[in-house]
Design goal:
The protein contains 5 helices and 4 strands, in the order βαβααβαβα. By secondary structure, it is an alpha/beta fold. It is globular. The N and C termini lie close together (11 Å). Bound molecules: 4-nitrophenyl phosphate (4NP).
């Protein structure tokens, strides 16, 4: 019996990119029948959208690929950097901001693009002020990275 593993996806507002990370990973673990072994959550580095559901444009794009984004926005806390096994930042600014939340984190903190090949960019581009293609690209990048993230999480 292995202990439950946990992963936290983090972006700026916690209404576009990190809810998508949470939704895509949730779908993946359910597909593999291991949802009882993995705990998945998301948070933002700012609290501006606290309590809000995911952005409607992001939800619609995700729904077309079969993902149901149910998260409510919350701001990351110092406790998160002690309680989650793995924290995934969507871009390098998020990564820096996360590293300032706690001075002795026990979580492993990585960029989503650490799980992708060099043909992908370092940052998941923020889709908030752009057009529909930005939301599709967020999904493309997160779908490509999630299997490798899950593999790291489930390594003995
Ligand atoms: P997210 O996108 O970080 O992917 O959730 C954003 C959401 C809201 C804002 C910026 C980015 N905002 O400035 O309110």
């Amino acid at each position: 019996m292995t202990s439950k593993k946990s992963v936290l996806f983090v972006c700026l507002g916690n209404i576009c990119r990190s809810p998508t990370g949470e939704g895509v990973m949730q779908h993946l673990v359910e597909e593999q029948g291991i949802d009882s072994q993995i705990s998945i959550d998301s948070a933002g580095t700012i609290g501006y959208h606290t309590g809000h559901g995911a952005d409607e444009r992001m939800k619609a794009a995700a729904a077309k690929r079969g993902y149901d984004l149910q998260s409510r926005s919350r701001k990351i806390t110092p406790r998160d950097l002690k309680s989650f096994d793995l924290i995934i930042a969507m871009d390098r600014e998020n990564l820096q901001d996360i590293q300032h939340v706690h001075d002795s984190p026990t979580s492993t903190i990585k960029l989503l693009s650490d799980f992708l090949g060099d043909d992908w960019p370092s940052d998941v581009p923020d889709p908030y002020y752009g057009g529909p293609e930005g939301f599709e690209y967020v999904l493309d990048m997160i779908e490509a990275a999630c299997p490798a993230i899950l593999e790291e999480l489930t390594q003995p």
